[in-house]
Amino acid sequence: MEFTNFVQKRQLYSAHRVVLSGVFWLILWHLFTSSNGATKEEERRALLQLKDSLNYPNGSALENEWVGNDFCAWDGITCGSNLHVRYIFLLNRRELGLGIWYPNATLLSHFENLESLDLSHNYIGSWIMPEGICRLQKLKTLSLYGNLIQGGIHPCLSKMTSLVYLDLSFNLFQGNFPSFIFSNLTSLDTLLISNNKFDGTLSFAIFANLSNLRYIDLSNNDLMVNTESPSWFPSFQLMFLNLRNCHLNKDQGRVVPSFISYQTGIVQVYLAHNALQGALPSWLLYNTTDGVLSLRGNSFRGGIPLSSGFETSRLQLLDISDNRLSGQLSSTIGYSFPELRYLNTSFNAFKGEIPSSYGNLTKLEALDLSNNFLQGKIPINLRQNHASLVHLILSGNNFHEETMPSFSNMPNLVDLHLRNVGFGGSITRSLVNLPILQMQQLHVLDLSANSLSGVTPPCLSNITSWKKESEFELFSGMWIPTYIDYILKVPLTTKANSLLYEGTPLSLMTGLDLSMNQLTGHIPKSFSTMEKIESLDLSHNNLVGSIPPEIFQLHFISTFNVSFNNLSGSIPFGCNIQPFDESSYRGNKGLCGLPLHTACTPPNNKPPQQDEEEERAGIAESDFFFFSCIAVSYVVGFWVVILPLLVSKNWRRKHYAVVDSCIYICCNKFSGFLARIKDCC
């Protein structure tokens, strides 16, 4: 009996304990959800404060986007499953006229679940209480690209061990590079700090244990990057490495970083402008897979070390320009680099002929062999039937062909630069009926500094791209750069300045340069049909006659140079040609008028009395013409406004609505003005 009572009491006690436990957890859940609700309201208020700070003192960004209580639906905000803010994406939101932004970083500390923060291009000058960012322990992505942030990186950044992506590039950070910060960020996959003002020495060994590192860009600072000392071995496998202009291994013999030889899957390597010395390592050419190798602006010597065996490289872009390389161009390049799309060997000392194997690079889009000592003839398979070639730059060599060779069946060719290559003979015979005139994509043709003679061919105006809008203008409305725009240095005269254009949208430039030849005859009037041309240089020839007034039809022209010819007559006056300075016309003894200092003085054999009468008549005619133009303009303008109102009911309704709204606004303004006066009285 006693045992039975004991069991019953035990069961009752267990039931009470279950009930109490349930009540306890229910209370905890209620407290938790109540706390969450308050936190979400704090997040909403913090976002609104961030918006106010972004718009200080009188901006209007996000005024219409950030309304209501559901901040998870606001533009640039993404929430997680728990309805807390996970992503803040506010790229380029601050208005330019508001000046530099100094946000308070403590506003960000409310977002404890934040994983990604992007405030790029917002004119941030510095942070108020920057340690507020470091409280975001779950933050994985931080992008402050393209701001104006000064000073150093706050040391607390070393505690943000969850960071995977960090972009601080294109700012004004300065001082010694804080190596200790980045050695702690073991989760880091991407580190971008290019184009700042960091200085001092940076040992690449600080990244040795960052096994997740894939992308790193330290370019364009004042750093001296040392990759060889102390001895270290990389635990990472990079895909992207940019050490452009980093004073690489200045105290270690300016050698190529040896750790790159262990990067088996690296795709893009940029080591330009580091004064690297010695021979070009062959392993560097074959270690980069399916990507880019840029070695421009160094001091490498010797030739291009192609493999002697059956090894091939999948390299697509190779830039070895501006070095001290020499010798002959290899005839096996077509086999060694079958995937090559861009090749730039300009500004070196290569000699001999261009191997015909260069024409066998069927995927080649851009070839720059300019400013070397190449001789002989241009291979026929490089100038004919090469459908993939877009940019061909051979200027500054010594081909010395008696006549200009034919360039045909190259439907995608945009730039053809043959400046100072020794071409001679009659330009008329070379160009008339040549397939080059049917190249619909050709934008730039440079035949300057040769020995071409004869009359300037009017048929040049038949080149299609100079007469109509390009596909870029018709369809894109914007230029999206490719790396080819950065590896090619294109000589082109614009605004009377002859420059090497690097990083220029080559496919958007249009120009014809026939300067420094032996051309004769007149400037063809047909050139006035080249409505889309931007640069026309006919200087340093033997042209005669006057400047055709029809040139005024070249609405897009930014450079027009006819200096040092035998032209005569007055310089035409017009909105397109006149802005150019004296240098565009000097060296022509027969030219007169502005901007030259030689005034045009037409013969005057009439008696003074007749001149006075004609002057008075001219004034009267001018007055009559002036007032006639006013009357005609008034009549035309009147009917342009009134006629649609008489014909269209829809126009009348819209017109009346606009007038009514204007009256309403004016009345309100005036009423407010009267009210303020009354208050003052």
From TrEMBL:
Q: Where is the Leucine-rich repeat-containing N-terminal plant-type domain?
A: 42-79
Primary residence = membrane
Known Pfam families for this protein? LRR_1, LRRNT_2
**Key word Translocase present:** no
Q: Name one GO biological process term.
A: response to other organism
* Classification via SMART domains: LRR_TYP (SM00369)
**InterPro entries recorded for this chain?**
Leu-rich_rpt, Leu-rich_rpt_typical-subtyp, LRR_dom_sf, LRR_N_plant-typ, RLP23-like
GO CC annotation terms, alphabetical:
plasma membrane
Q: Where in the cell is it found?
A: Cell membrane
Q: Which Gene3D superfamilies match?
A: Ribonuclease Inhibitor
* Annotated PROSITE patterns: LRR
Q: Topology with regard to the membrane?
A: Single-pass type I membrane protein
Bilayer-spanning residue ranges? 12-32, 624-647
Keyword vocabulary terms for this entry = Cell membrane, Glycoprotein, Leucine-rich repeat, Membrane, Phosphoprotein, Repeat, Signal, Transmembrane, Transmembrane helix
Asked whether the UniProt record includes Membrane among its keywords, one would answer yes
Query: What does the similarity note say?
Result: Belongs to the RLP family.
Q: Which PANTHER family match?
A: LRR RECEPTOR-LIKE KINASE, LRR RECEPTOR-LIKE SERINE_THREONINE-PROTEIN KINASE FLS2
The identity of this protein, by name, is Leucine-rich repeat-containing N-terminal plant-type domain-containing protein
